[in-house]
Sequence to fold (343 residues):
Amino acid sequence: MIKKSLYNCFQKQIILIVFLISGHLNSQIVQEFLIEKSESKTQLKERGLKGKVKTIKTCFFTIENTPKQQNIKRLLNPNIYGLYETFNPLGRLTKKVQLYPPVYFPMDTIGGDSLVYNDKGKLEKSFYTSSMGVHFIKKFNDKEDKISQEEIQKEEDSYLSNDYWSYKYNAAGKKTEAVTYSFYGPKMDKKKIGTRSYFKYDTKNRVIEEAKYGELLSFLITPKEIPVKYSYKYDLKDNLIEESCFYKTLAYKANYNYDPKNVLIKQVLVEGPKTDSAILKDGQISQRTITNRNNYIENRVYKYEYDTNGNWIKLNISTTFSENGKKQTKQETLITKEITYYE
Fold:
């Protein structure tokens, strides 16, 4: 007979694996910009949402005319696969719950984050709880909504670790250093440095470079490790116009174009043989073209529907794929949002 503690630990391992894989799949569906996604922000005004939003339920559904995708269609039920968020009357995110198909587990949710703010409106803590007993607690620093500590409530014999973040700032309050530490063992007596980021700024205090150590093969960190470097360029109106990433050689480069009102209208990403060009209208992506080796071409067309407050509640992405001139394959991706408001 399996001991209860061992069984619970096995459950936690499964949950963590599913959580990470599901998060990756979710990011593949939602991620459309190199610029920070608005969904990661905790304030309505930062996310461009209009009105006094109370709750948002976002659901994803992909259909493709192949047997494999028809199986995916049955898994990705739009009524249960996605994200559920709640906001307080001040417009701050208070809860975020991931929704998954019941084919994985006999419940429609695996877990979610509850966010707590201090009397100044700054994000103070978040709690991730799961119906199967995995508990993450994150604490945030007092300068920005950045994690300063993450711990996992666990049994005494657990293999899991606690992580801590340390930050340094310049005289203008801009972050110059961010270091992650991981502590292992039941007594938390073993410390290991994880990722280390160092930032440089121009005379306008705009970040122009980040050198990140430990992003790749973090278990081999040494002082001579080659960092991943990100560089940024701006126009006279402080708009980000170029972003580059280097690791030994150029990893990717992105260029951004804006209209006279400083609204992003075009983004072009070059990553090795891949080019991803996106056109935006009214701040929303309207079409994308992705090309790669072997004459691979992927065209996407985005169509939105809005509610009376001006927030989009339905997005249909029509995609066609072709390679080496072969017959095109079509795919439809539907993203819906159910939004409720405070009266």
